[in-house]
Amino acid sequence: MPTFCISVNDKAVATVNTDGYQILSIGVGASLDREELATLDVSGGSFPADGASTYLTWVPELPLLAGQRVVVEMREHGASSHAGKTAAELFPDEPPCSITDFTLTDSMFEELARLPLFRDKLAFECLSVDGDTRTGRTVADERNVRFNVLWNWLEPECARVAVRSYSLADLRARHLGTCHMEEQLRCGGAVSMVFLPE
User: What one-character-per-residue DSSP string does 48-88 give?
Assistant: First the structure.
């Protein structure tokens, strides 16, 4: 199974070998209503129909500054840099989550709409698998940007890469928002994402 290497400004943050897992998600998220500009998270696990699920986190919301470039490489082989942690290991003082329905309600959207904004827009630059540079920014009512590399065991030879910006209305209507990049990452390839100074 392939291995994913994640670095920030050429400094290794995590390497994850996917052997034994069904899903791996590597994401960079940013929002106008969060004080930190962006965060990096790496998580995944296995969810068998006839057994216990395992959900692990290798990088739990690492804060990112403007200009810090996240690079994701997909390699054919390689060992994990460290073990992923369960929620209980990451938050030992918190009780187990009992929520099973994570659907956003109208009151939740109203609360999100009232949150103060820390910036006017989000601008970013992506480097595609082919080496093309693509830039983008939020427009109109868009408040969030998400860069995501998603691998699953059904298509182990590749990972899906997407960069999208979206508004609260998009979330509420379950729309995908504006697509800025969508492609497949394969072994030997790499993609990157950086948020630009305002």
Answer: -TTS--EEEEEEEEEEE-TT--EEEEEESS---SS--B-HH
Q: Name residue 162's amino acid.
A: A
Q: Among residues 6, 36, 53, which one has the least CA distance to residue 190?
A: 6
Q: Give CA–CA dist 69/1, Å, rounded.
A: 26
Closest Cα partner for 27 from 191, 167, 197, 196? 191
Residue 40 and residue 25 in contact, taking contact as beta carbons nearer than 8 Å: no
- Read off the pLDDT of residues 114-158 as tens digits, 9 standing for 90 and up: 999 999 999 999 999 999 999 999 998 999 999 999 999 999 999
Beta bridge partners of 66: none
**For residue 58, what are the contacts with CB-CB under 8 A and spacing of at least 6?**
14, 16, 42, 43, 44, 80, 82, 84, 85
- Rounded to whole angstroms, the Cα distance separating 64 from 119 reads 15
Compute the half-sphere exposure of residue 156: CA atoms within 13 Å on the CB side of its CA: 12
pLDDT at 101: 60
Q: CB 123: neighbour CB atoms within 10 A?
A: 17
Distance CA 189, CA 11 (A): 18
- Read off the tokens for 186: 């394969």
